[in-house]
Write a structure and sequence with these properties.
The protein is mainly α and about 375 residues long. The chain is built from 16 helices and three strands. The protein has a three-stranded mixed β-sheet with strand order 1-3-2. About 35% of the residues are buried. Bound molecules: heme C (3 copies).
């Protein structure tokens, strides 16, 4: 650098932001994609968007000044870092744009951003660390670098703690679905909100066709069906309140999974029928007995159930950018077997249901009988 060191303090502060972006970009790639990882990615995006223009100006100015000066040993690493900054800014903007306004984000651009980040990020880190250590203008060099970095890390930590507190779940009630054979993987009920909101699958623009097909389908109305409501009411009157759980395993599974006692009339959760999420969160379907399956609770993304439309948009962008958890939770592979449909689409009436057949034993192979 020449004697005019005016741009150095801002370059060092800018470098701190560069280091934060490099590190926060690595974490969602290295760590399993949980909510804290999502928060780190979100902060990476916010800081990145806010930094593009000021950092580009600072780095250009710094590069020009260095160019006027006689070349030092670390000059070329500076040039490569600058090129890297441009590549990362452009690919980052493209990714965020696709995440917000697109439907699917191709993995190819992820790879471009990641490889550019790894290669140029490493060169940039070397340039910054070496440059700061060797600087002929040492006043405040470490403080100028450390302060913005510490601020970003503080915001990250506070956000992570807040998310940790708000995500803590109260202890859920033990699941008791008898006489239905339905179960949950944890043995506890699943909060209804985790299984509802089929609209969001359509509204996000990702699954609009499937959603439009589901809206008028029998699966949507399996709980609200007026014939069902009448027959269930008679059945509950004859057998007692708890008996309705038997019907609910197939007709209003969300009411059952959330621990409702299945009243004779229909409730808001039964209006949702077999939702997208419920069907896709169903595991281990078995044709023995009735509704013999295991329901699982999906892991919602950050802000997935927020009441604010803006935050829901953020959540959808996070899903598009890193759909790993989403795909794992709603994996259609578990729904491909014949048993999947058969777990509801056949009847077996045991003694618990109509009081006169022999007791159903889950381990016993039983011949399906018609309703
Ligand atoms: C009755 C249960 C059921 C319901 C309700 C349901 N699905 Fe599916 N879904 C399936 C099955 C079964 C498959 C196909 C599995 C296969 O053959 O690949 C599937 C496949 C899919 C696929 C394709 C997955 C892939 O890997 O190709 C998507 C996306 C999907 N469903 C979304 C939805 C959405 C959105 C809704 C709600 C509007 C919904 N599903 C409602 C059972 C269901
Ligand atoms: C094992 C799953 C299962 C259970 C348990 C079950 N049903 Fe069903 N029910 C179905 C399926 C699947 C259909 C659709 C059959 C078809 O049309 O092929 C159906 C159809 C119906 C229909 C006809 C709906 C129409 O509009 O045509 C009524 C009514 C009904 N069920 C009432 C009940 C009642 C009341 C109970 C509890 C006493 C009950 N079901 C228990 C799976 C079940
Ligand atoms: C969670 C239980 C459940 C699962 C799993 C399930 N269904 Fe259903 N399905 C029902 C119920 C209940 C009804 C009847 C709704 C009503 O009419 O009230 C129904 C209705 C239907 C109907 C309409 C039948 C008619 O007579 O109108 C079709 C078609 C159907 N299901 C196909 C499938 C297929 C194919 C699969 C597997 C991919 C499947 N279902 C999985 C519970 C289920």
């Amino acid at each position: 650098m020449n004697n005019d060191s005016a741009s150095l303090p801002s370059s060092r502060r800018g470098s701190a932001i560069f280091i934060f972006l490099a590190l926060s970009g690595l974490i969602p790639w290295l760590v399993r994609y949980g909510v804290i990882s999502q928060w780190i990615l979100l902060l990476h995006i916010i800081v990145g968007l806010a930094a593009i223009i000021p950092l580009t100006v600072i780095f250009t100015k710094h590069g020009r000044e260095a160019d006027r000066d006689s070349p030092t040993r670390w000059w070329s690493t500076g040039l490569w870092s600058g090129i890297g900054w441009a590549a990362l800014s452009l690919s980052g903007l493209w990714l965020v744009g696709k995440g917000i306004w697109g439907v699917f984000v191709p993995y190819r651009m992820h790879s471009v951003h990641l490889v550019a980040g790894l290669a140029f990020g490493a060169v940039g880190l070397f340039h910054v660390v070496y440059g700061v250590a060797q600087s002929k203008f040492p006043q405040g060099r470490y403080a100028q670098l450390a302060r913005p970095l510490a601020l970003c890390i503080l915001i990250l930590a506070v956000g992570a703690v807040v998310i940790g507190i708000t995500r803590r779940q109260e202890t859920l009630a033990i699941a008791n679905f008898i006489p239905s054979n339905a179960r949950t993987d944890t043995g506890r009920v699943i909060p209804a909100k985790l299984l509802l909101s089929s609209e969001s699958c359509g509204a996000s623009g990702c699954h609009s066709t499937i959603y439009e097909e589901w809206v008028p389908s029998a699966h949507h109305f399996s709980g609200a069906d007026p014939f069902y409501a009448v027959i269930k009411a008679n059945y509950v009157k004859a057998q007692g309140a708890g008996a309705g759980k038997y019907c609910a395993g197939c007709h209003e599974p969300i009411s059952l999974m959330s621990g409702e006692n299945i009243p004779a009339h229909t409730s808001p959760t039964s209006q949702a029928g077999s939702s997208c999420v419920f069907c896709h969160a169903l595991r281990n379907p078995d044709v023995k007995g009735n509704a013999n399956y295991v329901a699982t609770a999906p892991n919602p993304y950050l802000f997935e159930f927020s009441s604010s439309p803006v935050l829901r948009k953020v959540s959808q962008a996070l899903i598009r950018l890193h759909p790993e958890q989403h795909k794992l939770d709603y994996d259609a592979q578990h729904s491909q077997s014949i048993e999947f449909c058969g777990t509801c689409h056949k009847q077996y009436l045991d003694k618990r249901v109509n009081g006169w057949r022999r007791d159903h034993d889950r381990t016993e192979q039983t011949a399906p009988a018609r309703c």
